[in-house]
Amino acid sequence: MGLSKRVSSWSVEEVLEWMQGYHPAKMDTLQKAIIKHAISGRVLLRLKDHHLELLGVEAEEQQQEILQDVLLLKVQEEVHELNDICSECFST
């Protein structure tokens, strides 16, 4: 999966791919939940600890690890948005 694609446009399959790459130990639990609840990139960016608990990630340490990685995705998304704004400003 290319990092140039916006996280907010990720499909459920791309979220699964990302989760497999960053949190393979939790995939047994998360795979079914991600599919069942249609966790797209847009939804992934909005996850909180209580959502992860409902998805089957009960250990607070594991929740924090996932949320830290999601925070990095949020920063990546913000950088994309800022680049878009700057491109629009300089293209006129």
UniProtKB/TrEMBL annotation:
<dbReference type="InterPro" id="IPR013761">
    <property type="entry name" value="SAM/pointed_sf"/>
</dbReference>
<dbReference type="GO" id="GO:0009898">
    <property type="term" value="C:cytoplasmic side of plasma membrane"/>
</dbReference>
<dbReference type="GO" id="GO:0007169">
    <property type="term" value="P:cell surface receptor protein tyrosine kinase signaling pathway"/>
</dbReference>
<protein>
    <submittedName>
        <fullName>Sterile alpha motif domain-containing protein 12-like</fullName>
    </submittedName>
</protein>
<dbReference type="Pfam" id="PF07647">
    <property type="entry name" value="SAM_2"/>
</dbReference>
<dbReference type="InterPro" id="IPR052268">
    <property type="entry name" value="SAM_domain-containing_protein"/>
</dbReference>
<dbReference type="InterPro" id="IPR001660">
    <property type="entry name" value="SAM"/>
</dbReference>
<feature type="domain" description="SAM">
    <location>
        <begin position="10"/>
        <end position="76"/>
    </location>
</feature>
